[in-house]
Specification:
Helix content: under 10%
Structural class: mainly beta
CATH topology of the largest domain: Immunoglobulin-like
CATH architecture of the largest domain: Sandwich
Strand order of the largest sheet: 3-11-10-5-6-7
């Protein structure tokens, strides 16, 4: 039985941050990122998006291979910077600035576009289950970049928490996003009675998403005392959920 969705998001992405050689700048779709090239502006200074093999700027001018309104070039005495606006997944990857006369002496920087999952959903058996059986819980994370860490947390009837890892199966798409299905095999014991299984998908400093699943467990009935007479029969019972 699926439970409610709990979403906690913490985003620590510096928009408009300046890059230096070799660094990677995190970005989210729609943000603006500034890349800085520590080279003196020149008529033969080139900016290239290495992943798409497109020259985006030459001699301080945006080329016809890209949308000109997306890039703003700023030149200083000893450097040149490019602001990339309305970032999308197509902007992800490596950028290089270099003089056309010495392409091997390129300054390298990267934009890493982070994408929150389109959906996170956990599911399990919809019918009541018995003790001493194996049940399968699944947690699906669809279309994210990078794929999050997925773990299960069982909150039992007594309020205690226990973590489980599960098994991941991943798919990757051409735009560098992917999907993940995490499967957990649950050995149903008395600890599962009225327990909540929490699927947690998280990327540090970006987001944490939780989805709950509750198993409807038949508990073993333990007889504690039996009293009888010639005319009647009384039974006292209790549910043993201590294990």
């Amino acid at each position: 039985m699926a439970g409610g969705l709990c979403l906690v998001t913490v985003l620590l992405v510096t928009l408009g941050a300046n890059a230096v050689s070799g660094v990677t700048i995190p970005a989210v779709p729609g943000s603006t990122i500034t890349l800085s090239c520590n080279k003196i502006p020149s008529t033969n200074l080139i900016w290239e998006h290495w992943d798409s093999k497109r020259i985006i700027i030459r001699s301080g001018v945006v080329t016809n291979s890209v949308t000109s309104s997306k890039y703003v070039v700023t030149q200083r005495q000893d450097s040149e910077s490019v602001a990339v606006s309305s970032v999308t997944l197509s902007d992800d990857g490596q950028y290089r600035c270099y003089y056309s006369t010495s392409p091997a002496d390129a300054q390298v920087m990267n934009i890493n576009v982070l994408v929150r999952p389109q959906t996170v959903y956990a599911s399990g058996p919809t019918d009541p289950v018995s003790q001493a059986t194996i049940q399968i819980l699944t947690c699906e994370v669809k279309v994210a970049k990078p794929l999050p860490e997925v773990k299960w947390i069982r909150k039992d009837y007594g309020g205690n928490f226990t973590e489980f890892a599960g098994t991941n199966q991943d798919w990757y798409f051409q735009n560098k996003t992917g999907s993940r299905v995490n499967t957990l095999r649950v050995n149903v014991t008395r600890k599962a009675y009225k327990a909540v299984f929490i699927c947690q998908a998280a990327i540090s400093y970006f987001y944490t998403i939780q989805f709950n699943v509750t198993l409807d467990v038949f508990c073993k009935i333990t007889p504690l005392q039996t009293l009888s007479t010639n005319y009647s029969f009384f039974v006292t019972i209790a549910l043993d959920i201590s294990h």
